[in-house]
Write a structure and sequence with these properties.
The protein is an alpha/beta fold. Helices cover 40% and strands 20% of the residues. The longest helix has 16 residues. The structure holds pantoate. Pantoate binds next to strand 2 and helix 7.
């Protein structure tokens, strides 16, 4: 697996592969990889012949400077993991390269970026959609894989690609869980042992609500209350939101009569965690 830092090196590697008739897959990441990321690389590998992974801790998507500074980085470890799961090229741009001098062109996906994570983290999605469109322009891949764990982010990217006619196929990667049900996240390493145990309440609540849904419950308020009851089980948990939303618009649903997601966000021992389950009708 090759490492590149500049746009010129990246373009020449991708150009060479394309000339050999290879389909290019792309997985953008902020590094500190876990099994969830590696599952996205494996999906890219099964849909493309040459897989580019980027590692860029994007300053523009952190509304909290401390959160940005605390973001874990370990390129040597990430590189080894990527090599073993078959990535072909690792692209590690610098902030100066991504946001050139006088940078002022931002991408905003208006409606999908407003609620939920957007309301909790002002400016976050503007940073995400901007960096993803810059990375798409640099890599020029045929397809890119985004995880369902960050479901709002995934929907936003799908909408951006449709609206801006980006010539790239977006592939959804299913959420990957630890054996105790906790959704995999780079933030999990920041949980204290007690908070790590408390973090199970998010998925426990979602699974309980999902069971209720499978049993015929369609009232969103009742499904949300099931999640909230689990979150209330630990003093370490500060719930931020739990909501049943339409898959496509992310608008709240009173009754689940169309494909929906049950979203949850909470801080657990000071670490912000997200999780969700699909409610398929
Ligand atoms: O999901 C992430 O890791 C980031 O938001 C992304 C898509 C790599 C953009 O910085």
């Amino acid at each position: 697996m090759q490492h590149v830092k500049t746009a010129a090196e990246l373009r020449s590697c991708v150009h060479r592969s394309r000339e050999q008739g290879r389909r290019i897959g792309f997985v953008p990441t902020m590094g500190y990889l876990h099994e969830g990321h590696l599952s996205l690389v494996k999906i890219a590998k099964s849909s493309a012949d040459y897989v580019v992974v980027s590692i860029f801790v994007n300053p523009a998507q952190f509304n909290d400077k401390k959160d940005f500074e605390a973001y874990p980085i370990d390129i040597a470890r990430d590189s080894e993991l990527l090599r073993t799961c078959g990535a072909d090229l690792l692209f590690i741009p610098t902030p100066e390269m991504v946001y050139g001098p006088g940078f002022q062109s931002w991408v905003t996906v208006e409606e999908l970026s407003a609620p939920w994570e957007g309301a909790q983290r002002p400016g976050h999605f503007r940073g995400v959609s901007t960096v993803v469109s810059i990375l798409f322009n640099l890599v020029q891949a045929d397809c890119a894989v985004f995880g369902e764990k960050d479901f709002q982010q995934l929907r936003l990217i799908e909408q951006m690609v449709a609206d801006l006619k980006c010539n790239i196929q977006i592939i959804r990667g299913p959420l990957v869980r630890e054996t105790d049900g906790v959704a995999m996240s780079s933030r999990n390493v920041r949980l204290s042992p007690e908070a790590r145990v408390a973090a199970r309440s998010l998925s426990r609540g979602l699974f309980a609500a999902e069971n209720g849904f499978r049993g015929g419950e369609r009232d969103s308020a009742k499904l949300v209350r099931t999640v909230e009851a689990e979150l209330a089980s630990s003093k370490l948990i500060e719930p931020q939101y739990a909501a049943v939303v339409a898959e496509s618009t992310l608008s709240p649903l009173a009754l689940v009569t169309e494909p929906a997601r049950l979203l949850v966000a909470a801080t657990v021992g000071g670490v912000r965690l997200l999780d969700n389950v699909a409610l398929a009708v």
